[in-house]
């Protein structure tokens, strides 16, 4: 497979995933479930567009040292990584407005991570400045981890054991998968160059499918499970239920009256 084949294939996978997410989202019952779904649904759409740009050669620039700089990748990450983090933060905080400064802080650190990563990539091969940008990006990434394993874990625990367990699982999967990105980067043509251009594109494509599609579908399923428990425990306010009659019936356990004999 050539680089272009991989980019086209990933573009199609992302578009198909967006279609599948529409189907998954049809059953959303509460405000929380809807918020999650919207965050995860936008991700493969944006990725599909970014891969379309890269497959057609419009999402790249040739640098002075002859390397290809895929700027579309960083445009994609600068929006999709905040959305993925928002999904996770919604699991822990429920309403993002409750601790909005934490939400903004995490998203801000994440955007700094992506933008400084782009500057590192665009820096001349083997220059000191490249690794300075890379280190700053890793620092911002560390801040995201601190928030996920500190404040946000404590908030999830306050909501009860089910939320804490779902948040913990999603947080750990996300933390491990995301850690592979800076490793691929460091060994790829952007870094020391021991991984080929095609190898690094294939690695990012596989990671993007895992973090956006597989993790996204899994996180939506986890949210659906939590929502079912919340509805059964009558922990969802009427205003937060979607107006579908079936949802009201489920939440209030409305039983059809026995027919009169
Ligand atoms: C870079 C290089 C500089 C150092 C660090 C990086 C981290 C990137 C990450 C990207 C995650 C992307 C995801 C995309 C899919 O949706 C920019 C590679 C720390 C963590 C999850």
SSE arrangement:
Blueprint lengths: L2 H23 L5 H25 L5 E2 L5 E2 L1 H23 L6 H23 L5 H22 L1 H8 L2 H27 L9 H36 L12 H8 L9
Antiparallel strand pairs: 1-2
The structure holds retinal.
Give a verbal description of the structure.
Strand 1 and strand 2 (68-69) form a beta hairpin. Helix 2 (31-55) packs antiparallel against helix 3 (71-93), helix 2 packs antiparallel against helix 8 (197-232) and helix 3 (71-93) runs antiparallel to helix 4 (100-122). The protein is mostly helical and 261 residues long. It has helices at residues 3-25, 31-55, 71-93, 100-122, 128-149, 151-158, 161-187, 197-232, 245-252; strands at residues 61-62, 68-69. The protein binds retinal. Retinal (RET) binds at residues 77, 80-81, 84, 113-114, 117, 120, 134, 137-138, 141, 178, 181-182, 185, 208, 211-212. Retinal (RET) binds next to helix 3, helix 4, helix 5, helix 7 and helix 8.
Short key terms for the protein model shown above:
mainly alpha; binds retinal; two-stranded antiparallel ribbon; 261 residues
Shape verdict: globular
Say how many strands there are: 2
Major beta sheet summary: 2 strands, antiparallel
Rg result = 21 Å
Could you tell me the mean pLDDT?
93
Classify the helix fraction into a percent range.
over 70%
Q: Give the uncertain stretches in residue-range form.
A: none
Q: Count helical runs.
A: 9
How far from one another are the termini? 71 Å
Bound small-molecule species: retinal
Order of SSEs:
HHEEHHHHHHH
Structural class: mainly alpha
Strand content: under 5%
Strand order of the largest sheet: 1-2
